[in-house]
Amino acid sequence: MAKSIYFFGGGSAEGNASMKNLLGGKGANLAEMAGLGLPVPAGFTITTEVCTYFSENNDTYPEGLEADAEASIKRIEEVMGSTFGDTENPLLLSVRSGARESMPGMMDTVLNLGLNDETVKGLIAKTENPRFAYDSYRRFVQMYGDVVLGVKAEKGEHDPFEVIMDEIKEKKGVTLDTELDAEDLKTLVTRFKALIKDQIGVDFPEDPRDQLWGAIGAVFKSWNNERAIIYRRLNNIPAEWGTAVNVMAMVYGNLGEDCGTGVAFTRDPATGENVLYGEFLMNAQGEDVVAGIRTPLPVAQLEERDAKSYNDLQTIRATLEKHYREMQDVEFTIQQGKLFMLQTRTGKRTGLAMVKIAVDMVEEGLITKEEALSRIKPADKLSEVLAPIFDANELKKAKQEGHILAKGLNAGPGAATGRIAFDADAAAELEAELAAKWRAEKKKDKNAKKENVILVRLETSPEDIKGMQAAVGILTARGGRSSHAALVARQMGKVCVAGCGALQIDYKAQTLTVGDTVLKAGDWISLDGTEGEVFDGKIETQPSEVEQVLLKGSLDAEKAPTYQAFAKLLSWADEYRKLGVWTNADQPDQAKNAISFGAEGIGLCRTEHMFFGEGKIEKFRQMILAKTVEERKEALEALLPLQREDFEGLFKEMEGRPVTIRTLDPPLHEFLPHDEEEINELAAFIGTTPEYIKRRNEELAESNPMLGHRGCRLGTTYPEITEMQVRAIFEAAVNVKKETGVDPHPEVMIPLVGHINELDGQEVIARRVAEEVFAEKGEKVDYLVGTMIELPRAALTADRIAEKAEFFSFGTNDLTQTTFGLSRDDAVKFLGEYYEKDILPQDPFATIDRDGVGQLMQIAVDKGRQTRSDIQLGICGEHGGEPNSVEFCHMLGLNYVSCSPFRVPIARLAAAQAALKEK
Ligand code: PEP
Ligand code: MG
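A: This is the predicted complex of the input protein with phosphoenolpyruvate.
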């Protein structure tokens, strides 16, 4: 086995920041800081490889590890000037997990290790502080009992250690832990040990070396505890990575008033502002800062309390940013006026902050544009910048009417409104219910809005992840800006108000009380995560700053700093990307939004969406119900002006950019009415009987409509539909050209082609009608005729298809469906289990399956180019706005990706990242 232990401390280190895979993030960065000469307590890291060995070899260690650890302990002893297990001057250790990527709170930690009935005396002698020594000792026994020995609360009961503690406090007539004296704490140690013996049946290990190996083993094992596994799944962290274990000399922030501890970010993680941001507590241990029992102070106030440490921290902040060229999240402890750095890592931040920091750092000369672009996660972080805020009028009204309930910490920006759930399961259930309700409503009202869930907790812990995931916003009564709720919410991009002390939450009664207001589970509540305000009732949310500037024009760009950073970043993206970014839009307002977001064309206009408007659907239904070709043509005649008008709107909006219009795609029966009332209305409209309509409904129904009479199969059997649509396209194009002088660029796209002969027939119609219109109107426009590649047969015979198609657009929704033989509509029901069982790595309808679907795309690209070297290639399936798929499209050398308007910025950035990655 390779080297398993890496030492750091005393101004040097065996490892460094580039060794994250082996040493974990924490270990690698501790080594890096030690190597930079920063004040890090000495310690060593046991590698992630040992974690893998340990779990593969029945919890045993590779040969020689123990001897290496012994030697490293010696070196810690030399640097720190104390001895592990010594009864006069004991060295105490912390044992912490640290995976390649941070997994906050998911794995175990043991502190104050090395204390026993003898060494505690040494600690007393050394610190002259018996209370401190026994408090450290009881914390250690408690933590070790929980983490290593597995003492647990019975179901529904309180933590048994806390129960004992409460008993002692009650007996003494005090309420706070801090009111317990050394003797009380000593009693606690004895009682805790007795509890362990009672529940687990083993004696608490007194030998520091037994303690150490017990703790190391527990931390390695915690890599496979349930919450770590769930977290890994949510964050795509492979199980093979394993965790490292960091063993480090303890330093104390709770030895007196000249001690303290804190957490800080080198810039504001919510807004990105370039200031030291964080909080600290004097005379406290690290966990006190995040536990929310005492309210920490803003780090700026450290200057008054301990100017030297504050200045040291500011200097270290600058050193770290210059060295890492990235915003850092640090933990520090001040022991008797001396500052120690316990951790540094890349700081998690909101999308707003991510964009702002990246752009600022380029302007400060810290990083290059390329680095700034590569750093932003397009899907989660950039989309956060586009996240909603409250409707300003509604907010004003809510404030005037006194709906403001309380103020907490603005821990995760954005606005959220939703229904209350008090625990993770309830949140997940409510979310599923609301989603189902919305799906049903959407069938009746296309604009129906989905209701959301707000998770309300005293504080959150890793067990709450599922509920946080289901909620749009998180509200907690306790905890600071760096509490679990705040950190995780920011990472997930959720709105969060934390530490809202005015809330009284009663889990049993399922109520939230503030003064006279009592809210129950399911009631409406609204959160302003940017201001930290909580409102009772529903406040409509509104588009982001970016949207207000770009789409609404309701906000001046000068007054929108987020927008400015966003715009700058995307302009840089455009310098690097090779892929064009088009949009899927059927309506002029969608097209307009997309252009504001930077779209360069329409890659898919689904014409069937245009028939749903008032006054159109009846005519369309009449067309479907026609008994003869003549009747159908007559009905189509009535539809022609409506379609033409729609297309004119699009061409005007697109001002000469390409507009890809797809001929009718879905099976006809989808358009027919099914409920009694609608059937009667339609019968009256076209002068037939309801019975006739019902019979046609039955005739048109298919057992497998997705594979049925749809796509070009409709245009093949009813060529008059294609004729009408193509006529509408070209008449509209010519009209707009005459009216505005701008040259529209239509691209006629034939869907669901599997055989060249299908395309052939449709292409002949398209070109004939185009020429007819040009002749009639005495004006012409440039246009293309092409096809979608949505069926495996189309991909495999793309060389033939390219004889007629001037462009291909990959319809990866259908191509995924038909390649896997998975129904787009029904597969969600069981695909979840496929990911859990690792049968599929992810949803193939979201991210292109490169091996299968991707291979077909590659074949189609190659064969298409073989026949027509300059064939235009794009994608318009949902994958066109998903970063991983965008990268694949870049690799295939497509000309463009097309996605929904709000994903256009994401695709622009993802395309730039793909180009940079290739470089
Ligand atoms: C596709 O199949 O990928 C596509 C864009 O078409 P639709 O989703 O309309 O079937
Ligand atoms: Mg399709």
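The chain has a mean pLDDT of 92. The first strand starts at residue 5 and ends at 9.
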